[in-house]
Amino acid sequence: MIALEGGNYDGLFLLIILIMFGPPILLSIIGFSVRKTNKQASLVLFILAGLYLIIGLGICGGMFV
Q1: φ/ψ (deg, to 5) at 22
Q2: pLDDT per position as a tens digit, 12-50
């Protein structure tokens, strides 16, 4: 039987990295831009970014193991 091997998985790896780190970076940038006008909203955005990063690294990082 011929073993079926995959090809180049660089795109999939990049997609998973983007899912792990993309939204937290975006939420942090928005949080820094909103911080001048509304400190409470920026705090919520920073908390969401941290929470998303922890969950993303746990779930997506578990797929790499």
Answers
A1: -65, -60
A2: 888 888 888 999 999 999 999 999 999 999 999 999 999
